[in-house]
Every structure is written in C-alpha cells, then in structure tokens.
Amino acid sequence: SRYTLSVSSRAPSAADRSNAPLMIGHAAAAYLADNVNAGDVIALGWGRTLKFAINELPRRPIARTTVVSMLGGLTHAQPLNPTESAWEFAEKIGAECFLLPVPVYADRPEQRDAFMSQRSVQDVVFRARRANIAVLSVGSFSNDSPIANYGFIKPSELEELQAAGAVGDVLCHFIDAEGRPVDHEVNRRVCAYPLQDLSDIPNIILVSGGQEKVAVMRAALANSRVSVLITDEDAAKGLLNR
Prior knowledge:
- By secondary structure, the chain is an alpha/beta fold.
- The chain has 9 helices and 10 strands.
- The protein is globular and about 45 Å long.
C-alpha cells in the first residue's frame, strides 16, 4: 500500500452497508478510549460516524483535556451538529470545550471573512491549532449524507461542485481527487478550520468508511498526514485496489 499509516483499525464488512457507520463508530470509540490521555487537546470534525463513536465512548474523566470544534454549527437544530458532537465528546471525558460561534456556511464569502475575523472565532481556531490530536471524518455526495440532507447547500451547488471535480468534503471543504479544495464559491463560504493547516496537527485520526466514501477517503489520505485510519473492510479493500 502507498498509505503509510502508523496505526490502522478496521471493522469487518457490514452485511447491511447502512450499518457501516455504526460499526466503524464502535471501533473508533474503542480506539479513542485507549488513546486519549491527560493533557490532550482534541480538535473535532463532524459526521454520522463520529456521532456514533461519541455515543459509544465510555464516560471516563480524563484530566486536563480540551475538545475544540473545528466547524461552525447548524442554525437549524439537527440530531447531527458539529457543536453538539464537540460538547458531547467533552462531557464524556470531562474536558473543557470550545465551539466556533458561527454558522458552518455563511451566505456570502465576504460574510464568511467577517465571521472568521471575529476575536472569539480566532481564539477557537488558535486553540485548535494547538491540538495534538484531530479526529475527522469525510463526507460523500450520497443521498443520505448530512450535507445533502440538511439544506445549507443547494442541490444545484452540489451538482456544480461535482462538475468541478469534487469527490466529497473534509471539514465541509469540498476537495478533488488529489485532496485539493475545488475552486467554487461554496468553499469560500465555509466557516471552519483551514484545510491547508491540518498537517500542523501531529496526530490525525480519520474515521470513515463504506464504499461510497472510498474516493473522498483516498483524496483525504493523499493530501493530509493521517496517522490513524479507522474504517471497514470494504472501504479498506477499495483503497488498496485502485
């Protein structure tokens, strides 16, 4: 394999592919329970699989830990929300929690720039830059993906992103097959940790799987220094059988 991951966890194939996020989440919870230590600063992404991982994580206070959300939140309350995920993770381990107090997508690029320049937002981004662990997932263009279902990106914009070469998203930034952000206004409206700075975080844990995620997982691995991949057997085979 051309992927040089120092650690890899793998869940077996799910008989029903819709169960893959749950199985991967369970494996991720076990990994995090064993590998989050006192004093860690954890920068957190979002996604259904991460939500399952947090749900499965045992409640055990870990001293001097901090959880920092890497994304703005959803203005319309939803079961899956970056801010809720960060808060729930922090509660499980007794950590301090810092949230980005902005929507995940601004209406216009100039509005996004104004949001991200706020002192409170810059403080949270600064804390995320000091993280020693980042826990991320990736999103695809499947019909059941949160981005497709939550309505903050128009269907026409999703079509334009695919036409521009996007294979999915990392931290709500849409990337091409080489892991580079595509040139589209949607990427200039996202309120999130800068994608180009991800590699400054020393330990990146990617938690994702399913056949529909193989292309975007491959792209994320190509352009990020992922050290731990937690996925399912089907996705692992897809990554290796290019």
